[in-house]
Amino acid sequence: KSEGGLYVDMNSFLAFGKEFVGWNYEKTGNTVYLHIKETQKPVSEDRPSKKPTLLAIGVEGGFDNNEPEYEKNYEVVILPDYVTLPFPSVELPEKVRLAVDAVIINVAAEKKEQVAAWTADTKIISKHAMELKQLDNGVIVPRSGWKCEKCDKTDNLWLNLTDGSILCGRRNWDGSGGNDHAVNHYNVTKFPLAVKLGTITADIEAAVLTLNCCFCSCYLAATMQVMFSTRGFCSRYYLDQNLKSAFDAAPADPTVDLNAQLTKLAHGLLSGQYSVPATKVCSMLRKQEGIPPRMFKSVIAAKHPEFSTMRQQDALEFFLHLIDHVERVNTGNPMLDPSRSFKFGIEERLQCPSGKVAYNRRYDYILSLNIPLHKATNKRELDDFRKLKAEKDARGEELTPKEIVRPRVPLMDCLELFSTPEELHDFYSSALNSKTTAIKTAGLTSFPDYLVLHMRKFVLEEGWVPKKLDVYIDVPDTIDISHMRSKGLQPWEELLPESAPEDSGISANEDIVQQLVAMGFQYNHCLKAAVNTSNSGLEEAMNWLLSHMNDPDIDEPIRKAQNSAPYVDPSKVETLVSFGFEEDVARKALQASDGDIEKATEWIFNPPSGISSMDATPSNSGNVAEAPLPDGEGRYRLIGLVSHIGTSTHCGHYVAHIYKDGRWVIFNDEKVALSKNPPLDMGYLYFFERING
């Protein structure tokens, strides 16, 4: 809301509040504005409610979204003296009248977004399902351990709903997939309906019936509250940059500028200007009106197939998406980049039976942790609970909430599991010139200012059905991970030869790749997932894949190891040259930007301080790409967590708890309150701040 109404620039059609319209006049010189002022209409308590005829919200025939209605008044204002002219008026020039009419008849941006956001998909019911015949042939489908009846395939399996046969699917163009046995079976029997095993859940209608989640952006709200509680984001977008400077530095349309929208959001959250109760009582609860970050969401979610919708999303995926965009817009300015406060290095040490070793290094922003349920500290209570559950199941009785016991696993055991040595099968040893089993250990090469721990609560059951672990994590106020620092190559260690392997030293485990392909992922993406997780398992590969689906190089082939300068794709060099850049400059920019054309273009236009795009050298480019990461001691204190309530990352609800001024505060969308007993053991993402000194 903007006190005093909105002023719409009749040249650019951007809207400003009374406090900021002068900035636009100073920047653009545009003088004519449409002043729109709204007055809320009284709501009749006994008005009849319309019966919805469409499974949708906020559209004609759908459910009411309970938005208040407003009476709008219009006038034309001329700056800088704020001369007002009534509208409608025949005294106004025709050009102005037409422009004003265009603004008025245009559907409100929020309404347009809602209409596009969610309308239930029309379910197409197969005609065969209405007349399905099932043979009484004694076939019993097992719950797990499935295998094609005509070959040894254990993935991409289809269950025929007529005779219960389990057969493999189609063969893909690249030879992957199945052996066409399910299709051949249909050609012989004409039994038409089959389902892919592992894709059907008991709660098949849950997504349709959970209407309250349709416009959910709680994943965004919870994540951004924590982000703006960190020094990096607070300084970059609030303390070190005011709204005026961000607006002046923005392009002609600041609504599409991420820096401007982050600064605007930071000002809204941190200035205290909007931290006031609502002027009117809504139902029986008095609450703040909150700050709907619509423009910020529009910018950060632009062209993203999921975040651009109003459906619920995964808070982890959004965090990584945000970090990626913030890093891009700050390319070449590492000192200004707040995403670097989360960035750290991970080093994996691989030792083959020859005794020789290899080290793989990569950067990340989150430490994703498996949860070792066998480390639960309440095993006796769990055993008693399982016995009680079995007894009640036998009697057909339901458990009460008080009777349910969940495993309690210490966070330190999850961290210990990350560094525990594990066997890596099908590792190609260049010393032995064969595939063998290697031992892999992992550690951190640097400790970031802020450590984000992702608890892998979402796992795959038998049949590749996603499941959320119902588990508590015992999290202390402070942790010390100093022992997790990687020591790097030691004087007595000998590196594996670099000449023999064709790629990075790790070849993808084909079983992992095929299982991922069967789930619908692209083959090349699956190869990368297996290689980048060192073939450690299906769950690890899927987690990597879900976290890197939006990487700019996800579709590129796996690169071979390079012993000299960073590899630069010649086609990308040609693309930049076609834009008018010199070939040398294009090549250096791509080297400094890890081959990303968008980042390279930003690097050329905004080179690092002291480096021009015309005289940049490979060494300078390397310095930009390898700027030292924040580092320090391994002691951290818990400052916040994002917790999830629900059975899936794509439904349910996210809330944030943040430690502020010696107190825990809960941020539940627009509701903010002190939290006397924060559920620290229910976190999905934990945010730790490094303790210095």
From TrEMBL:
PANTHER family: UBIQUITIN CARBOXYL-TERMINAL HYDROLASE, UBIQUITIN CARBOXYL-TERMINAL HYDROLASE 14. The lineage of its organism: Eukaryota, Viridiplantae, Streptophyta, Embryophyta, Tracheophyta. One of its GO terms (biological process) is protein deubiquitination. Keywords: Hydrolase, Metal-binding, Protease, Repeat, Thiol protease, Ubl conjugation pathway, Zinc, Zinc-finger. The active site is at C218 (nucleophile), H653 (proton acceptor). Zn(2+) binds at C148, C151, C168, H181. Its EC number is 3.4.19.12. It holds the Pfam family UCH. It catalyses: Thiol-dependent hydrolysis of ester, thioester, amide, peptide and isopeptide bonds formed by the C-terminal Gly of ubiquitin (a 76-residue protein attached to proteins as an intracellular targeting signal). Residues 507-548, 567-607 form the UBA domain. Residues 209-691 form the USP domain. It comes from Striga hermonthica. Residues 124-241 form the UBP-type domain. GO terms for molecular function: cysteine-type deubiquitinase activity; zinc ion binding. CDD domains: Peptidase_C19B (cd02658). It comes from the Eukaryota. Belongs to the peptidase C19 family. This is Ubiquitin carboxyl-terminal hydrolase 14.
